[in-house]
Amino acid sequence: MESNMNQGKEGRNIERPFAEGESIIRVDGLNLHAGKTHILKNINVEIPKNKLTVILGPSGCGKTTLLKCMNRLTDLTPDIKVSGNIYIGEQPVFGSKTDIVALRRKMGLLSQRPFPLPMNIYNNIAYGLKLRGKYTRAELNELVEYYLRQVNLWDEVKDRLRSPAVRLSIGQQQRLCLARGLAVNPDIILADEPTSALDPVSSEAIEKQFAALSKDYTLVMVTHVLRQARRIADYVIFMYLGEVIEMRPAQEFFDDPREEQTKKYLAGAFN
Amino acid sequence: MMEEKKLSDIRAMVKSHERPARTGRKLGEEVFFRSLMNIASVLIVGVMGIILLSIFYKGVSTFSWSMLLEDMGSGFYLNRGGGIKNAIIGSLYLSLSATLLALLVGLACALCMNVYLVRHRRILNAARFLLDLIWGVPSIIYGAFGFSLMVFFGIKTSLLAGIITVTLFILPIMIRAIDEVMKTVPAGLSESVLSMGSTRSELSYKVYLRQCFPGIVTAVLLAFGRAIGDAASVLYVTGESARTPTSLMDNVTTLPVAIYNQINSPHAATQDKAYASAFILTLVILAISLLSRYISKRYQKYRIY
Prior knowledge:
The complex is a heterodimer.
Chain A: H1 2-11, E1 23-34, E2 37-48, E3 52-56, H2 63-70, E4 80-88, E5 91-92, H3 100-105, E6 107-110, H4 121-132, H5 137-150, H6 154-157, H7 170-183, E7 188-192, H8 200-213, E8 218-223, H9 226-232, E9 235-240, E10 243-249, H10 250-255, H11 260-266
Parallel strand pairs in A: 3-8, 3-9, 6-7, 7-8
Antiparallel strand pairs in A: 1-2, 1-4, 4-5, 9-10
Chain B: H1 7-17, H2 24-62, H3 65-69, H4 85-116, H5 121-135, H6 139-153, H7 159-183, H8 187-195, H9 200-229, H10 232-235, H11 255-264, H12 268-300
């Protein structure tokens, strides 16, 4: 623990890739142990504001764990030890004084498989709105429609808003979950391989949505699909075996990889 | 080693070891175990059927409406007339209130285990182990425990003492049954809900309760069945009464105790009426099961996965 903390402090002096105010998430010397396994090894990265950042890497390299650290979902997993910290703006994620509920409101999460709430379609969106404040029926109706339109789901579901969300197809459910996340009005959207359970048409829909959203939101997407990263990423963080190997703008990353492991991965050697 | 052999060699080797799919010993095994399962199923269903049939057959023949409408009065067990209205109502009071109490405590406990203590695997394992252990404690022990509690607090034998004892008795069942349902809530659902900025109590009351509703109904049913059907736990603590209870402090006779007393009666006619009482007890449980199944079905459709 002691030595990890020191590494964390050193990490702060590593060259900052972004100017002040350009980045929104800063991971500072993060180490994570699950039981005896060292999953994240001294991670220092920054994530730029209102851009689409892709965390890329082969399966089991700690991408998802890093993502889940950002809104402290690690709280739900037993036997996890974390040192170092993550800052959202200026607020630390790990720390006894952190109001994690308030912090999580700034971040939406889209998981690998969609998990709609056990309610009807309308309430799936309204739930997020009602969490943050009181609305009249009319305002709620308007907002629910707005967010469903934003993910191109409105036309498909407008006649059955009161039917259970589970009746939707898996691609529709994923879009519903995205709309639900947006309804909480976050600044950041975390996505954990959001298209891996979807058919090609639905994945394309989600990808397009992501590209469009990256003007107004900071998106962090985990993926192991190289082509997907190529298509939509603004920035790429490449991870391998729990370490960050490279973190660069997408264009540079794909055209001119610096590290040996990156070159191998891009050439398809790890898969 | 493996790499040196060609796939075709490996396939040939596996093929040479192959037995015909369903002949000889394998077929024998399958026939044997399948018939074993069939026999077991038929036996169980048959025995249940015989119990139910004999209750219905003997129960209907000795049943009279006066049993539902009259209290026991002074000479019920001596075959001087009267009914078991007081026992039916007493049993319902007792088991419904005990189930309700156990549900309130049990829900809180199961939610605590599954929402708040998810990280503390050791505490959870210990709690589950203990609950499973006291699930198996015979109900007469609860009766004795309830009795000593009663003496400690200076309460007389009463409906209240019965409710408390039965609540304690069905609590482990309630908690573990709800807990097992809540364990099936996918972790991804909790993660999604929390990452929207819900608090853990919002996660509990708005999501867990909805998602687990059908399972909670089953748990309630299970606990209610134990509560209304058990004689030993209330033997010491409720006293006996031939009148319908009107307050929590009244003595009360429950249906199972009434049935026990009827069978022990020296009069053959009273003994036969025990079947009518059993018949009524069965109908009460049937009615509650049907009702709760109906309720749980209405919410089933919202469950995810």
